[in-house]
Hints:
The protein is built from three helices and 21 strands. It is about 10% helix and about 40% strand.
Amino acid sequence: xIRNVLLSLILGLNSFVCVNAEKIEVDGIYYVLNNxxxxxxxxxxxxxxxxxxxxxxxxxxxxxxxxxxxSISSFAFKEAxxxxxxxPNTIVEIKNDAFxxxxxxxxxxxxxxxxxxxDRALSYTGITSLRLPASLDSIGIYAFFASEDIEFVYNSxxxxxxxxxxxxASSTLVNAVLYVPSDCVDAYKSAEVWKxxxxxxxxxxxxxxxxxxxxxxxxxxxxxxxxxxxxxxxxYTLGGELVVSGRGERTLxxxxxxxxxxxxxxxxxxxxK
Length: 273
């Protein structure tokens, strides 16, 4: 009887390990599948590193079964040469070290579905702006440490998350502008670490303008797309999700639709046809 129980436990354990440890590749991205709830987590590339612009899908289909992509595994992109990452609104957790040391990473969106950002998840990156959704409950230690190019932090939460010193680089606290809901400025100015930001402002950048062809001195139509030239700029959907961000001059090939392009305290709503 005992032997049968032990054998059952061993077989069950082996099955569990197999289900959750096997990596599946779909369209160049590797995942670990959980067959219990049909979810998937983006995993490390077993043959090297991911690179360039990455778009993570909401779901994948394996053997005619659909799996919802709900997390970015620990170390999934560590030290990868990715330049921008677009996450779907199914992601709930960005785990420890997920994007650590991605020094070429300039832009990443954190969708409204994300509740947890793990330790060192976005440390030592080249991101220039950071939008934290209202859904975010937990931010790990050193989550954005040594990402010293951050110039703008947008936090949509009405209640400042509890964070520890070292979550942000000291240069971010000194140089970056923290934007928060207008009626929560005092709460952030009295919350640990958040209060260390030199500049805390209410709401997102003002001055949004509707336009089609003539934008601003730093933004205009170009034969090959939308031309932007600024110290640090970001493009968002009207829903607030980051599309792409960067520094300096660049021509963007955006899909048809409406976007908000921000540059410091200025922001322009554009229509791409």
